[in-house]
Write a structure and sequence with these properties.
Layout lengths: L1 E3 L5 E3 L11 H10 L4 E4 L5 E4 L1 H6 L4 H4 L4 H4 L6 H12 L8 E6 L5 E12 L3 E8 L1 H11 L13 H11 L8 E9 L1 H8 L1 H18 L5 E6 L2 E7 L3 H15 L3 E4 L5 E7 L2 E9 L5 H30 L1
Antiparallel strand pairs: 1-2, 3-4, 3-7, 5-6, 6-7, 8-10, 8-13, 9-10, 11-12
Helix pairs in contact: 8-9, 9-10
C-alpha cells in the first residue's frame, strides 16, 4: 500500500506490516521544522523540495528554491561549474552524488560554511541532501592555528602568523574569507623621540590592549613592527569592518597616561595618538598578499588625508 502527500512524497506500508503508515503531514512538519538544511533533488539535478532551514540559510523562500538547479542554489566551494559536472556524472551513473562544503552569505554579508552530503533514496526521487553548519569548526581550526606566533613586546601575533592566517582563511577548500584592517599610528614617532623608547614601548602595549579588547574572540590582532598593526576578521563583510574602524579610531584617540616603569603615573607623560586604517576584503581563492597590500595602500591614503587635515588646522590656528 502506498500513500502520497500534497508534496508528491510517497510513503509505503511494507506488505504484512502491522505498523500504521506515518501521517504525511507529521512527516512534512518534521522536515520543515528540522534545524538542519534538508533538500530533495531529482535525477536531473533540480530541487524538488527544501525545508525552511535551507531558505533561511540563503535569506530566501522555499518556493524560490524549488525547480532550480542544485548546483546553482547550493554550489560547493569548488564552484557552480564543477558542482554541475559532478551532478551530471551522477545522473549518468558514472559517479556518486557530490559531497563537500558550500560558502553562503547572510543578509549583512557575513559568511557561513555548510557541509553537504547526499544519499540516494529511490530512482524517482533521486537523492536527499543534508547540510551541517561547520562555520564554528572552521573558525576554531583557524583560531588555534593563529596562536602559534606572537610579538614579544605586546603579546599580539606577529607578521608571519598574520600572513599564515590570511592564507588559511582564503583557502578554497576550507576558508570563509576575511576582512583585513591595516593600521598605523599617527604621531607616534614624535612621542617616541620626545619621551624615549621605553615610553614608546609602553604606549604600544597600551594601544595593543585597546585594539585587542575591541575585536571579537575569533579575530586576530597583530603587530607588524614599529607602530604598524593589522587586524584579521574572519567571515566579515565591509559593513562590520567600517563600524569597527570607527570604534577603533575613537578608542585610540583617548589620552594615554604613561607610567615611569615603576607603576607611578606621570602627568607630564599624558600623550595622544591617532590611527590610520585601511580596509580590504579577501574571499576564498583570492591572493592573500594582494589583500594585505590593498589594505596597506588604503591605509596610506587615509594617513595622507589625516596629514592634510592637520596642516589645515595648524594654518587656521596661526
Amino acid at each position: 500500500m502506498e500513500l502520497t502527500d500534497q508534496h508528491g512524497l510517497a510513503f509505503a506500508l511494507p506488505e504484512g506490516a502491522a505498523t500504521p503508515v506515518p501521517d504525511p503531514r507529521l512527516l512534512a512538519l518534521m522536515v520543515d521544522g528540522c534545524a538542519a538544511p534538508l533538500v530533495l533533488v531529482g535525477r536531473d539535478g533540480r530541487v524538488l523540495r527544501a525545508n525552511r532551514a535551507c531558505a533561511e540559510m540563503l535569506s530566501t523562500t522555499v518556493p524560490d528554491l524549488v525547480g532550480r538547479p542544485v548546483w546553482e542554489v547550493f554550489p560547493l566551494i569548488s564552484g557552480a561549474d564543477t558542482t554541475r559536472e559532478q551532478w551530471q556524472r551522477f545522473a549518468t551513473g558514472t559517479a556518486e552524488p557530490p559531497a563537500g562544503e558550500q560558502l553562503s552569505t547572510d543578509r549583512i554579508g557575513n559568511r557561513r560554511r555548510v557541509a553537504w552530503t547526499y544519499r540516494p533514496i529511490s530512482d524517482e526521487l533521486c537523492v536527499v541532501g543534508t547540510g551541517v553548519d561547520v562555520t564554528r569548526e572552521r573558525l576554531a581550526e583557524a583560531h588555534w592555528r593563529q596562536k602559534a606566533q606572537t610579538d614579544p613586546l605586546t603579546g599580539l601575533a606577529n607578521r608571519a602568523a598574520f600572513e599564515e592566517s590570511i592564507v588559511q582563511h582564503v583557502d578554497l577548500r576550507s576558508g570563509l574569507g576575511c576582512g583585513v584592517l591595516f593600521c598605523d599610528l599617527d604621531g607616534f614617532k614624535a612621542i617616541n623621540d620626545t619621551h624615549g623608547h621605553a615610553a614608546g614601548d609602553r604606549l604600544l602595549v597600551e594601544i595593543s590592549h585597546r585594539l585587542a579588547s575591541t575585536v571579537r574572540g575569533g579575530d586576530l590582532v597583530a603587530r607588524f613592527g614599529g607602530d604598524e598593526f593589522a587586524i584579521l576578521l574572519p567571515a566579515v563583510g565591509l559593513i562590520e569592518m567600517r563600524a569597527l574602524s570607527t570604534r577603533l579610531e575613537r578608542l585610540v584617540r583617548r589620552p594615554v597616561r604613561l607610567s615611569d616603569g615603576d607603576g607611578e603615573l606621570e602627568k607630564a607623560k599624558t600623550v595622544t595618538v591617532g590611527i590610520s586604517i585601511g580596509l580590504s576584503v579577501a574571499s576564498p581563492g583570492d591572493d592573500p598578499s594582494a589583500a594585505l597590500r590593498e589594505a596597506d595602500e588604503r591605509m596610506y591614503e587615509v594617513k595622507a588625508r589625516h596629514s592634510t587635515r592637520r596642516v589645515l588646522t595648524l594654518a587656521a590656528e596661526a
